[in-house]
Amino acid sequence: MRLRELARGVGVALSAGQADRLLGHLELLERWNRIHNLVGPGSPDEWVERHTVDSLALCPFLEEGEGVDVGSGGGFPGIPIAIAREDLQLTLLEPRQKRGAFLLNARARLGIQNVRILQGKAEELGLGARFDFAISRATFSWSEWIRLAAGLVRRGGRVVATLGLHPPDPDELDEAGAGVGLGLKRVVVYQVGEQPARRLALFERSVPRGTGHPAARNS
Fold it and tell me: How many CB atoms lie within 10 A of CB 135?
């Protein structure tokens, strides 16, 4: 199966059952997308690489625990990750009502037990710094995302930032992360099928938010 082969290419081994559920997510998304335009034009065949496997590429960098996906929209990256990594607990945040309704429907139809859905904006829900990791995809610029995500993860928690095709310089990432209490751990290059190589930045919450480099130097 093409999905399973592409997933192996980003370091994720899927069972036949997991692959079926991931394809079921895309089929459900296609039906809703005709009416509500959740992810723009396309078909499940196109979305396998563009959305599902690109979401699965985050899996190898998430340690066991509880995470949050901010701006989940059509369920990316949270639903593919939840299906592939049943050891994780995920909270999907989505401020828009129709997308939130889709996520609730998808969770029920696909029988996803390790996900909860919250409707609203992260900065308005008062979740606090409680999560082991924070992820988001195609919702914020990388700099906006790390500023928001820094307030969602506990000390030692991980923030994963997708950098797209034209990533910033590592020094810029390091400086921006330090300003919100995140230490840059590494930048990862990955490729989905024949698509151009993409990059992820992995940050860790190492100091209280806003203390930046001075606190790190004095510790």
Answer: 27
What does the DSSP 8-state code read for residue 157? Answer: E
211: exposed, middle or buried (C-beta count within 10 Å: 0-12, 13-18, 19+)? middle
| Residue 181, phi then psi, degrees to nearest 5 | 80, 25
Q: 98-122, pLDDT tens digit by residue?
A: 999 999 999 999 999 999 999 998 8
Which residues of the chain register pLDDT less than 70? 207-219
* Alpha carbons 15 and 199: distance in angstroms, whole number: 26
Q: pTM of the entire structure?
A: 0.92
Residue type, 151: G
In three-state secondary structure terms, 186 is strand
CB 132 within 8 A of CB 152: no
The one-character DSSP state at 61 is G
Domains along the chain with CATH numbers: 2-218 (3.40.50.150)
In whole angstroms, how large is the CA radius of gyration of the chain? 17
Residue 75 to residues 35, 86, 96, 178, 211, Cα–Cα distance (Å) = 16, 16, 13, 30, 34
Amino acid residing at 217: R
pLDDT 10s digits, 32-44: 999 998 988 889 9
Q: Is 145 exposed, middle or buried (0-12, 13-18, 19+ CB in 10 A)?
A: buried
Q: How far apart are CA 163 and CA 203, in angstroms?
A: 13
Q: How far apart are CA 200 and CA 40, in angstroms?
A: 23
**How far apart are alpha carbons 211 and 214 in whole angstroms?**
7
Q: Which amino acid is at 142?
A: W
